């Protein structure tokens, strides 16, 4: 599924508002949801370090939850997820090009 199509679906699950019209409570909810799910990802990785095994299915499930909150947060701010990914890629490519390791 394309990220913007996923975003359309995800936005509909929480009620549709005009893009960029999120109130502080909604932004707080989405930001805290994203942080909580990122913590779940970190917890799964911690278990890998502690126990020496990784539950890939559980980690994939948590990564999906991260994507859900991240996408909804983008849209609540009036940003298209695909544009954020394009900007991120450009920023990382610029950093890599400037890195001594890239030479």
Automatic annotation (TrEMBL):
<protein>
    <recommendedName>
        <fullName>NTP pyrophosphohydrolase MazG-like domain-containing protein</fullName>
    </recommendedName>
</protein>
<feature type="domain" description="NTP pyrophosphohydrolase MazG-like">
    <location>
        <begin position="30"/>
        <end position="95"/>
    </location>
</feature>
<dbReference type="Pfam" id="PF03819">
    <property type="entry name" value="MazG"/>
</dbReference>
<dbReference type="InterPro" id="IPR011379">
    <property type="entry name" value="MazG-related_GP37"/>
</dbReference>
<dbReference type="InterPro" id="IPR004518">
    <property type="entry name" value="MazG-like_dom"/>
</dbReference>
């Amino acid at each position: 599924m394309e990220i913007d199509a996923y975003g359309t679906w995800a936005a509909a699950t929480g009620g549709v508002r005009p893009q960029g019209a999120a109130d502080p409570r909604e932004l707080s909810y989405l930001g805290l949801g994203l942080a909580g799910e990122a913590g779940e990802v970190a917890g799964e990785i911690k278990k890998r370090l502690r126990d020496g095994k990784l539950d890939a299915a559980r980690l994939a499930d948590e990564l999906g939850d991260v994507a859900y909150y991240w996408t909804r947060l983008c849209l609540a701010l009036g940003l298209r997820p695909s544009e954020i990914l394009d900007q991120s890629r450009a920023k990382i490519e610029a950093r890599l090009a400037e890195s001594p390791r890239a030479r």
